[in-house]
Amino acid sequence: MKIKPPGSGEPNFKPTDETQKASKKTEKTFSLGRQQADSIQGASFTEKAQQAHFSGVTAQFSKTDLRNPQKVELVLRESVQELLKTEFPKARFANEEDRKNFVELMANDPLFRGKLLGHLEKLLA
After folding, report:
1. CB–CB of 65/72 below 8 Å?
2. How far is Cα 92 from Cα 99, in angstroms, rounded to an integer?
3. Are 25 and 90 in contact (CB under 8 A)?
4. pLDDT band, very low/low/confident/very high, at 46 (cuts 50, 70, 90)
5. What per-residue string of b and e applies to 76-85 under the rule 16 or more CB within 10 Å gives b?
6. Which whole-number Å values give the CA distances from 80 to 3, 9, 55, 95, in the listed order?
7. What angle do CA 112, 115, 118 make, to 5 degrees?
8. Which one of 33, 72, 86, 113 has the fewest beta carbons within 10 angstroms of its own beta carbon?
9. How far apart are CA 66 and CA 77, in angstroms?
10. Beta carbons of 88 and 54 less than 8 angstroms apart
11. Model confidence at 40, in pLDDT bands (50, 70, 90)?
12. Distance CA 99, CA 77 (A)
């Protein structure tokens, strides 16, 4: 059984107004506005963590605290909290629970955790 296509079955090569409008698009290369480019060039959370001084954390903890597994967790969470306050002051969370969840997420992220611990190892006396 052969199914007939709608219409006469022959292709329609006459352009309609809609296809003519589409073909008149200007041929610009992809570009970003100034605001978009600035936000893309901004440092990521990990990059900011590797550049931060963590004055509050360095005053509160020492390098020996990084040898204690329980204190490491506390140092990591405090570091993420301080990073949010100093490097990302405009960060908004719906409530305090969301902020705590974000801190937990970052403190438990293996890649971020490794980089942050390496940086803290250099900073702490």
Report:
1. yes
2. 8
3. no
4. confident
5. bbbbbbbbbe
6. 65, 65, 13, 17
7. 145
8. 33
9. 13
10. no
11. very low
12. 11
Distance between CA atoms of residues 66 and 74, nearest Å: 10
Task: Please state the pTM of the whole predicted model.
Answer: 0.61
- The residue to which tokens 């990521």 are assigned: 44
Q: Give the residue carrying structure tokens 């902020």.
A: 99
Residues 47 and 77: their CA atoms lie apart, in Å, by 17
The domain locations on the chain are 45-123
Residue 9 region by backbone torsions, left for phi larger than 0, else alpha for psi between -120 and 50, else beta: left
Angle between helices 69-87 and 110-123 (to 10 degrees): 90
- State pLDDT tens for residues 48-81: 877 778 888 989 999 999 999 999 999 999 999 9
Length of the chain: 125
Question: Nearest 10 degrees: CA dihedral of 44, 75, 101, 80?
Answer: -20
- Of 71, 66, 99, nearest to 83 by C-alpha is 99
